[in-house]
C-alpha cells in the first residue's frame, strides 16, 4: 500500500509538471541584413575616370522550428526554441568608368546566404490572446556562401555559389517579439533579432598584426505562424 501511494503521488506530480509545459511548431519568412557589408566610405572615387558605388538590401529567407514553454506562473513562461533560419544580405556594386570619352558601367550583385541553427531562450508574458517575449538567442552557423551576378552593357555572367571563409561560427542576438493567437491552437508570430556579435571576426597575420577589423552584425525580421499542441 505504501509503495502504491508513493507511485500515485509521483504520477500526480509528474502530471502537474507536464501540464505546465506547452509545445509547438512554427514556420515563417525572414527579411535579413548584415551591417557593414557596404557603405559610402567604401566607395572608390576615381575623379573623372570613374566611381564605385556600393549598396546593400535585405535578403528574403525562411525559418522553421519547434519550441517548448514552461509556465513559471499563470501569466509568465520561459520558452526555448530550436530553429533553422536562412539569413544573409544582398549587395550591389556599380562601377562606372570614363576613358577617352567612352563610358562603361559594370554591376555586380552578390547574394550572401547564411544558414543557422538558432536557439532562443525567451521570457514570455501572456495577456489573453497576446504574448510578448524577449531574450538572448544562440546562433550556430552551418554554412555561408555567395552567388554573384556580373552585368555589363554586353552580357551577364552568373557565378557559382562559393564558400566564404573566415566567418564566425557563432552568433549572439537579442530577440524582441510578440504573438497573437487566432484560435486555441493557431497564431501568428512577429519578432526582430538584433545581432550583438560580428559575423566576420577580426583577423590577424602570423605576426599578430590586424589584417581585417571585425564587422557585420545581423538584423533579421521574422514573420510567421505557429501551432500549439
Notes on the structure:
This protein is mainly beta and 229 residues long. The protein has one domain (22-228): Porin, CATH 2.40.160. Helices cover 8% and strands 66% of the residues. The protein contains 1 helix and 13 strands, in the order H-E-E-E-E-E-E-E-E-E-E-E-E-E. It is elongated and about 70 Å long. Residues 4-18 have low confidence and may be disordered.
CATH topology: Porin
The pLDDT mean sits at: 85
Distance between the termini: 36 Å
What is the ordering of alpha helices and beta strands? HEEEEEEEEEEEEE
Instruction: Tally the helices.
Output: 1
Overall outline: elongated
Given helix and strand content, the structural type is: mainly beta
**Major sheet:** 8 strands, antiparallel, barrel
Supply the number of structural domains.
Answer: 1
Q: So, CATH architecture? A: Beta Barrel
Q: Report the count of strand segments.
A: 13
Can you give the helix content as a percent range?
under 10%
Report the CATH C-level class.
Mainly Beta
Which strand-content bin applies to the residues? over 45%
Rg from C-alpha positions? 24 Å
Biggest sheet, strands in spatial order? 1-3-4-5-6-9-10-13
Which runs of at least 5 residues are low in confidence (pLDDT < 50)? Answer: 4-18
